[in-house]
Amino acid sequence: MFRVISCLTVEHDRRLLALALVICVLASSVTISLFHRAQATGSRDRLIWLGLCAAAGGCGIWATHFIAMLAYDPDVDAGYDPGLTILSLVFAMTVTGLGLGIALRDGARRAATVGGAVIGIGIAAMHYTGMLALEFPGHITWSSEFVWASLALAGLFGGAALRIASVGDTLRRSSAAAILLAAAILSLHFTAMAGVTVVPDPMRDVGAASLSPASLSLVVAGFAGMILCLCLLGSLTDRRSKEKLRQQKVLLDTALENMSQGLCMFDAEGCATLFNERYTRMVGPSAALSKGQSLLDLFKQMKEIGEFEGDPEAFVATIMADIRSGKPGTMNLRTPAGRVVRVLQQPMEGGGWVATFDDITDSRKAEAQISHMAHHDALTDLPNRTLFRERLQQALRSAKRDDHISVLCLDLDHFKSVNDTLGHPVGDELLKEVAVRLSGCVRKGDTIARFGGDEFAIVQVSNEAQLTSAAALASRLVEVVGAPYEIQGHHIVIGLSAGISATPNDGFDPDQLLRNADLALYRAKADGRGTFRFFEPAMDARAQARRVLEVDLRAALSRNEFVVHYQPIQDLRTDRIIGFEAFVRWNHPLRGMIAPPNFIEVAETTGLITQLGDRVLRTACHDAAGWSQDVCVAVNLSPAQFKDRNLVSSVISALADSGLAANRLELEITESVLLQSSDVTLATLHRLRALGVRISMDDFGTGHSSLSFLRCFSFDKIKIDGSFVRELATRQNSMAIVRAVAGLGKSLGISTTAEGVESKEQLALLRQEGCTEVQGYLFSPPRPAEDVEAMLAKGRLRIVAQAH
After folding, report:
1. Last residue of a domain, one of 481, 511, 535
2. How far is CA 367 from the centre of its chain?
């Protein structure tokens, strides 16, 4: 060490040493600056910056050496061999470029250390080649320990310089790297020079072509100027680059912090290198990475505090395997706050990946709500038809060997009248209460659904005897739903009808089971409601016949196969015909004449009754207008016709087209018409009455509120239902009812007509009780229109038949 200090202080010019030091530090700073610039650019521009960096570093090393050599005083005249001098410069730039290239190859710290050591070797190659270029009358001997020490110091300081420079471009790191690189150059030179011994030899002369120290000074000055120019260029370029990078960083930070997504970038080892604030807020402090923290450490930490249940190492290994294979990945994570975050991982070139985080909690809730709405009834929140069918299919697929699956189709009895009379709000509340009661009757695992209106259905899975289990449930449902309700101050009583189909006898197809249960429901309603029925094969046959009848019925309307027959109505006081009731008959081309009971119900359920009723009304008006006597014609109106807003206009049109006087038309309605919507129905009745049309109540006494209807509207006639007439001679209560109705009619000043008179005994009792009019098979069955004049010509009817 003392020898090195002595060499510096005694054998060198201090002013030139200071210049060499300045040149060395400037050259080292430029080299490190250009190294960072090359490190930050892409592969295409990197070679250009690498060349500039090699030139600056090589020239700096060379200039430092030869300025120091000019400062060295060997006490003899000396010159420099031009070839070896230039070769030393080539060595300096070439080996420096090679070392920098190694350091830039993959950015790893080990490669940077190796590259720095290679630059140290380049410094040594340049120095010892430069020393060979020294020509003087004598020769040089070297001390091996100083030579090896110089090589070690150059490699050590050079490797350390590029290792620090490769970590990051900060002022502190760049300054340290530049000082270490300068130390590598200076330590090699002065340590090596300390091992030099000059031995004079007068026999050796300086070559004529040698560069004199003065000439070398000019050359070194030129290269020193080049270094200063490169230094200025590097400084300006670095300044612009840093400003551009600063602006880009501002834009990047702005973009990152204003993203709706969280973002986190990882390096090839799985450590976080970049993330935004949104990511931290989204996953929460306990699940957020800090810069430089590895993903594995994070999940280990979360497992320790109970916020991760899996195996951290296996979980991270799966992620890393996907990233290394270049395969994007997607997964959902639940944050400690209970939020659901979707993570999309996109691999990057050269290793590492970018993860974006989307909070999908609200969207998942919205999707779940939409899915729920699509599969559930909005009013009762029960499953709808779609979900019911899916549950039925699932039950059929997963049924065990001993399981029996029953399908119950349910329909509320008299719900429509409640809805029409009390309003839809009350009807909706009633449906909600019914849904609660139904839900309380089924077991866990069974499904109850609302199909719409007052239609419900149940899937029951049982390993008991299917008929016993389904019957018990249906019986319970009928009982529970039939119990009274108190809704918005109204006391309401409804009933329930149910149809049941079950595996295996009734099929294994969902649609078939539903269809069969619906057929059984239809039978339950036909059998009086408030009960349940199991499906029977005969029901399907009847349904098929019903469908054929419906098709024929539609065709019959288009082919005009319907005819109107007339049954006379006789006044008991005068024994004369005072009118006729119109009855429709279907003149089927194959089956002959079909009576109304065989097709009217189908016409009502299919909606064809409105068209058929209008046709009967027009035909009756047209026929009556041509009769020789001004007797009345009575036409029945169905409840479906009263729902038609065009009823009044249809009556007006029929009267106008036929020319029949309005007071000769009598319209018969049943109590079921008044049950639909009393206010609307009464308004229609008053409009018809205003036309002059007569209104009679048919089947009086068979409904629920006959007397209240008589109070609401002044009818022209009451017709006693034939069921009471048939039992006059056998049941005292029937006689009492007929007596009461006849007395009521007399008190109100309206006529009473007894229907279905079939025996002389019935006729005598009706006369006795004060009925004013009669009709029935005792006098005449309904007969074709062409027979009306013959009946009118006789004036009075004679008894033609006994009881049927």
Report:
1. 535
2. 4
Q: What kind and span of H or E run contains 564?
A: strand 562-571
Single-letter amino acid, residue 127: H
281, containing H or E segment: helix 277-283
Residues 489 and 586 in one domain: no
CATH assignment of the domain containing 508 = 3.30.70.270
N-term to C-term CA, the chain? 146
In angstroms, the CA 788 to CA 784 distance is 7
CATH number at 344 reads 3.30.450.20
Domain-embedded: residue 434:
yes
Distance CA 410, CA 457 (A): 6
- 463, 596: one domain: no
Q: Does 257 fall in a domain?
A: no
How many helices (H) and strands (E) the chain has is answered by 29, 26
The CA distance from 498 to 438, in Å, is: 12
Does 290 share its domain with 185? no
Picking from 494, 499, 577, the residue whose alpha carbon sits closest to that of residue 534 is 499
Instruction: Tell me how far apart the alpha carbons of residues 494 and 412 are, in angstroms, rounded to a whole number.
Output: 7
Quick check: 137 pLDDT over 70?
no
Residue 787 lies in a domain: yes
- Are residue 640 and residue 609 in the same domain, yes or no? yes
d(CA 224, CA 26): 10
Rounded alpha-carbon distances, angstroms, from residue 305 to 292, 300, 336, 341: 21, 9, 11, 20
Please say if the pLDDT value at position 63 is more than 70: yes
Nearest CA to 68 out of 196, 258, 236 is that of 196
**What H or E segment, with its residue span, contains residue 353?**
strand 353-359
483 with 580, same domain: the answer is no
705 within a domain of the structure (yes/no)? yes
pLDDT for 232 equals 56
- Summarize the confidence of residues 337-351 as an average pLDDT: 80
Counting Cα atoms < 13 Å in the Cβ hemisphere of 377 gives 22
Question: In terms of domains, do 147 and 228 share one?
Answer: yes
Among 365-369, 480-484, 699-703, the range scoring the smallest mean pLDDT is: 699-703
CB distance 270 to 355 below 8 Å: no
Does 495 lie in the same domain as 403?
Answer: yes
Number of domains in the chain: 4
Q: Give per-residue pLDDT as tens, 710-728.
A: 767 788 898 888 888 888 8
Contact 765, 733 (CB under 8 A): no
Residue 803 has pLDDT above 50, yes or no: no
Beta strands in 441-494 (DSSP E): 447-452, 455-462, 485-487, 490-492
Rounded Cα–Cα distance for residues 352 and 266 (Å) = 5
Q: Please, which pLDDT band fits residue 225 given cuts at 50, 70 and 90? A: low
**Residue 312: domain span:** 262-364
Give the contacts of 355 (CB within 8 A, at least 6 positions apart): 263, 264, 265, 266, 343, 344, 345, 346
Angle at CA of residue 638, ends 719 and 429, nearest 5°: 110
Judged against a pLDDT cut of 70, whether residue 626 lies above it is answered with: yes
Say whether both 593 and 732 belong to one domain: yes
Query: pLDDT category, 436, cuts 50, 70, 90?
Result: very high
Q: Between the CA of residue 134 and those of 102, 140, 505, what are the distances in Å?
A: 32, 10, 116
